[in-house]
Design goal:
2 domains, two-stranded parallel sheet, alpha+beta, 172 residues
Length: 172
């Protein structure tokens, strides 16, 4: 469960403070799907980046269960997964290496069980034949499925998705 308390997010542009989110308070419950809708540029991606720990709020708190998300070395941050809008794939790494790098960053090892899970994810997403390819050789839909695989292999408690299906066709 994520508790958002009096969250304020802003950035500076041309010397002016631009407020993106003002005084947001809400709870995202476990085992539920929460959808955040709004027009382009309203702060949806910025909020997702704050919830994932990428962007620190100007003020307010984000708690995962009862722990402050932005406490140094908070282990609960490791349990939050993100599928970014722009895929976030490392261009110098293969599809396989992008997924393995996610495990490495979360300090998880690739044991036989984890290998089987990753192979199952590849099969379910139809990307088995893409493992040795680099991101620049992938279509938008393929890159999106790789980003989804990379998030799923981490088995996060919370999965944040920013436009996760925008590059996928209806059949996918």
């Amino acid at each position: 469960m994520l508790h958002i308390q009096n969250l304020n997010l802003s950035y500076r542009e041309k010397g002016q403070e631009i407020k993106v989110i003002e005084d947001l308070t809400m709870t995202l419950k476990s085992n539920q799907i929460t959808v955040i809708l709004g027009p382009s540029g309203c702060g949806k991606s910025t909020l997702i980046h704050a919830l994932s720990g990428i962007v620190k709020p100007h003020s307010g708190n984000i708690l995962h269960e009862h722990d402050f998300l932005f406490e140094p070395l908070n282990p609960r941050r490791q349990r939050i997964g993100l599928i970014p809008q722009n895929y976030g794939l490392l261009p110098w790494k293969t599809v396989e290496d992008n997924c393995l790098f996610a495990l490495k960053m979360k300090k998880k090892s690739l044991d036989a069980s984890q290998r089987q899970k990753l192979d199952d994810i590849y099969k379910r997403l139809g990307i088995v034949d893409l493992k040795e390819r680099y991101p620049n050789s992938l279509s938008g839909g393929q890159a999106q499925r790789v980003a989804i695989a990379r998030a799923f292999v981490l088995e996060p408690d919370i999965l944040l998705m920013d436009e996760p299906f925008s590059a996928l066709d209806a059949i996918t």
